[in-house]
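> call design_seq(struct)
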């Protein structure tokens, strides 16, 4: 260079006096999994990514710190992705946190790019079902849904806490991620229709027939990638703000009712914080619409959140598939989600929809349904355009009494002291329902420790608290019960 005239004598003397490095310095490892993705898809070409380098380094620091902490509890892998809602671009991408040291893997599975790996979805798809039901007019935002033991052709879903509310509003069922109401919602919408909606929204992993997934589709019976699912959340926010949804097929993006999307985002903004804080009481805590998910066997923990500007997705678990008792979305992925949001510029909340974007209708405040002829008190709400297709309130009787079906009332009354039990006066109302066993169940009579045959406790709810119930098994009279309707029976096979 000196002889060629590209370097003066002073620079030449300084250069030759410096010792040569022993070996090349390692290349930066800010987003190794994303780099590997481009090696596979764009080998031999120059690629300029949308990654914000400063944000990427800060997200790396957060996820590396959390990965080290979670690894102490047997949760070894952590992934995160951040989308810019307005552009649809990925601005931070952590395929697997803390994965390399000097370019070599730190642990088995560390090289797996979890952001794009198909994993059991847990409850993370529930907001899409809620939104779809609202925009198709099959349900209103606060329609009461049954939350009682159920058996559907041998499929008996359970809530995470194994408790029952009896009846719960659809928005509360979403905010608390209740499984049983969600299964009722999927039966209402239809498994094939929901699978088709998810594919149109941008899920690329649903390659099997809808019948294979069945009703478990809403509870983690399918696999999705953190990339696809976070992108759908980002697209919902983009659509609501009048921008182009970022999906593989934006023209066929299936969410098309702004009022339905608004109610979905509002329901998700009411999710309880993992630190048991209520953001509404603390002005410095930003408002985020977010959802968590936990797969069967505690193998996958999800948390996805969205604001008007950003969508953040987090996954925690083990790339090799083993579960961990502490692997719960709200406890593991949730705190990481909010630490990442704290790195991002604060956002205002979504503006409320205009009256012209929906319809106004009278709604029963107790049932959440369209007001029926016997609903004496009503609220006027802005609803999705097809809301008038939904059914009117079925629970108010001609005398104005609010009467739930017996099984729903059995659990509901224990949580709502204001609920008054009413004797059914309508011939169309079933006066009693079995709590256990449910229709279609297969039951086993247990053996006691001393070898004697035990019994199965049959439990019944009656709409009349003073009713006497007479029990028969086939043609044999077994006795009667009053107030508490339980019988321990040992039926033959």
């Amino acid at each position: 260079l000196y002889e060629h005239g590209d370097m003066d004598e002073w620079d030449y003397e300084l250069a030759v006096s410096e010792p040569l490095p022993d070996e090349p310095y390692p290349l930066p490892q800010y987003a190794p999994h994303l780099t590997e993705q481009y090696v596979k898809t764009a080998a031999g070409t120059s690629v300029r990514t949308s990654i914000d380098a400063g944000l990427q380094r800060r997200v790396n620091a957060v996820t590396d710190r959390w990965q080290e902490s979670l690894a102490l509890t047997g949760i070894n892998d952590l992934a995160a992705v951040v989308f810019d809602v307005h552009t649809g671009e990925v601005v931070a991408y952590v395929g697997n946190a803390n994965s390399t040291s000097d370019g070599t893997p730190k642990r088995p599975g560390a090289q797996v790019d979890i952001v794009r790996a198909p994993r059991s979805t847990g409850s993370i798809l529930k907001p899409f079902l809620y939104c779809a039901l609202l925009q198709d007019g099959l349900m209103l935002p606060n329609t009461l849904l049954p939350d009682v033991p159920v058996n559907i052709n041998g499929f008996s879903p359970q809530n995470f806490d194994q408790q029952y509310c009896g009846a719960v509003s659809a928005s509360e069922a979403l905010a608390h991620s209740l499984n049983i109401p969600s299964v009722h919602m999927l039966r209402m919408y239809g498994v094939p229709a929901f699978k088709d909606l998810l594919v149109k929204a941008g899920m690329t992993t649903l390659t099997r027939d809808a019948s294979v997934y069945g009703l478990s589709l809403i509870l983690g019976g399918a696999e999705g990638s953190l990339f696809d699912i976070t992108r759908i959340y980002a697209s919902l926010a983009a659509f609501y703000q009048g921008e182009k949804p970022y999906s593989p097929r934006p023209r066929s993006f299936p969410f098309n009712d702004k009022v339905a999307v608004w109610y979905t985002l509002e329901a998700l903004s009411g999710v309880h914080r993992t630190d048991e804080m209520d953001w509404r009481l603390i002005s410095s805590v930003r408002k985020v619409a977010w959802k968590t998910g936990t797969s069967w066997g505690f193998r996958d923990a999800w948390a996805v959140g969205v604001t008007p500007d950003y969508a953040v997705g987090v996954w925690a678990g083990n790339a090799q598939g083993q579960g961990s008792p502490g692997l719960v979305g709200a406890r593991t992925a949730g705190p990481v989600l909010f630490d990442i949001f704290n790195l991002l510029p604060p956002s205002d909340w979504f503006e409320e929809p205009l009256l012209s974007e929906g319809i106004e209708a009278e709604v029963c405040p107790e049932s959440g349904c369209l007001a029926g002829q016997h609903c004496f008190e009503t609220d006027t709400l802005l609803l999705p355009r097809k809301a008038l297709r939904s059914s009117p309130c079925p629970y108010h009787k001609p005398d104005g009494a609010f009467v739930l079906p017996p099984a729903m009332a059995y659990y509901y009354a224990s949580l709502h002291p204001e609920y008054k039990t009413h004797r059914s006066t309508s011939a169309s109302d079933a006066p009693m329902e079995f709590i256990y066993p449910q229709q279609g169940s297969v039951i086993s009579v247990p053996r006691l420790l001393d070898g004697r045959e035990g019994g199965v406790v049959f439990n019944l709810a009656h709409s009349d608290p003073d009713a006497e119930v007479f029990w028969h098994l086939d043609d044999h009279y077994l006795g009667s019960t009053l107030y508490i309707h339980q019988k321990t029976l040992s039926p033959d096979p």
